[in-house]
Amino acid sequence: WPVAASLEGTSGLLRIPTTDVLPDGYVTAGVSYMDRKHSKVVAADTDAMPVFGGIGFLPNLELVGRLTVFHDLQAFNWTYNLDRSLKVLYRIRRQTGEYTPSLAIGVQDVGFGTRVSYLGKASYLVGTWERDGWRLHLGAGRDRLDGLFGGVDINVSGNHRTHLIAEYDTDYLNAGVRA
């Protein structure tokens, strides 16, 4: 299955992480937009624009740096409207056989951990189970990913050009198409 970035830059579905890891030496970069419902900060509602870059390092390690620009300057009592984040994901094991899922552990906002932003600090354990043309992702986390989260992606085209995605990110049900 191809590795794809979530809206926050981490490998995953729309908002939740998966056990997908960029291959060693691969680089990714992107920009996304998140509306007020999904990018709230503690003090106020604000739109957000995550700008991210990531690299696959070693066989099972992924590092992602992200700058998030909050459009509403009143969201913080800071002189700037920018949040920075470092994410580390390590895949502990790949799926073996039909019944043993792949497992990964990750942390977001390493060293910068703030509870001001819902895009902020999180630590989690996630598993991915693959079967034929679909995958199931289940995980548990703390902070932004507080509690259980999960999702499914279905390869509808058979050649990984189009995927249907549905997830629960501990706050919202999200759905989309990845093409």
What's this, in brief?
This protein is mainly β and 179 residues long. The protein is built from no helices and 10 strands.
Describe the structure.
The chain is globular and about 50 Å long. The chain is mainly beta and 179 residues long. Helices cover 0% and strands 47% of the residues. It contains no helices and ten strands. The mean pLDDT is 86.
Mean of residue pLDDT values? 86
Radius of gyration from CA coordinates: 16 Å
How many beta-strand elements?
A: 10
Structural class category: mainly beta
Shape: globular
Count the DSSP helices: 0
Terminal-residue CA separation? 13 Å
Give the % helix. Answer: under 10%
Uncertain residue ranges: none
In percent terms, what proportion of residues is strand?
A: over 45%
Strand order of the largest sheet: 1-2-3-4-5-6-7-8-9-10
The major pleated sheet works out as:
10 strands, antiparallel
Order of helices and strands: EEEEEEEEEE
How are the elements arranged and paired?
Layout: E1 27-31, E2 48-57, E3 61-70, E4 82-93, E5 102-108, E6 122-131, E7 134-143, E8 147-155, E9 163-168, E10 173-178
Antiparallel strand pairs: 1-2, 2-3, 3-4, 4-5, 5-6, 6-7, 7-8, 8-9, 9-10
